[in-house]
Amino acid sequence: MQVTEITRRTAAQRRRDTLDRLSTERDVWLSTAHPEHGPHQVPLWFLWDGRAVWMCTSASSASARNVREEPRVRLSLPDTFDVVSLQGEAEAYPASEVPDEAADAFADKFGWDPRRERGSFLYLRVEPATVRAWRGEPELRGRVVMREGVWLA
Question: What region holds the Pyridoxamine 5'-phosphate oxidase N-terminal domain (predicted)?
Answer without folding.
Answer: 22-134
